[in-house]
Amino acid sequence: MNQVWLRVAQLEDADAIAQLVNRAFQVERFFIEGDRINPGAVRELLRKGKFLLAEQSGALAGCVYLEPHGDRCYLGLLSVDPGRQRSGLGTLLMGAAEEDCRAAGARGIDLQIVSLRTELPGYYRRLGYEENGTAPFPASAQPKQPCYFIRMSKELG
Q1: Which structural domain range is residue 66 located in?
Q2: Does 155 map to a domain?
Q3: In the predicted model, is pLDDT for residue 1 greater than 60?
Q4: Residue 150 covered by a domain
């Protein structure tokens, strides 16, 4: 893998983050229409949490969102540019996210994935996450197929 630089996103990164997330989440078009996020929503998330960015060869290659919730962190929007997927970049970002949460004093990380993304539970299990429940998928998103969220967590040591 070429040299990867990690940094915390700034407000001026919102457009690039939205573009990256939407490219990475095109795989979900089989059950949901439209973009996953827009720059305004990214800016709103940056008010509550932060994005860790991975840059490679001068371009934004990946990101992950972290939001503190007491002694835990919520992790979401893990995104890797489609041309760089399966290169280990997502796993690198997950490790950086976990370290960031530990450094902030978090005891655990929680995430949720859409049930229709059948490849994801195994990926997160390999990283030490365990399933611990479900949550409804928002009807306002108008999915083309019935689905729900699978909740997963990892305790940080």
Answers
A1: 4-110
A2: no
A3: no
A4: no
Count the Cβ atoms, other than its own, within 10 Å of residue 49.
Answer: 15
| pTM value surpassing 0.70 | yes
**In contact, 106 and 67? CB cutoff 8 Å:** no
Distance CA 154, CA 132 (A): 10
Q: What is the DSSP letter of 88?
A: S
CATH number for the domain that contains residue 84: 3.40.630.30
Taking only the tens place, the pLDDT of each residue in 126-148 is: 999 999 999 999 988 899 999 99
Token pair for residue 102?
């530990």
CA–CA distance, 126 with 105 (Å, rounded to integer): 23
Q: Would residue 82 count as lying in a domain?
A: yes
The residue among 37, 111, 11, 29 whose CA lies nearest residue 67 is 111
CA–CA gap between residue 24 and residue 102 (Å, rounded): 27
What sign does the CA torsion over 82, 118, 8, 12 have?
positive
Does 123 reside within a domain?
A: no
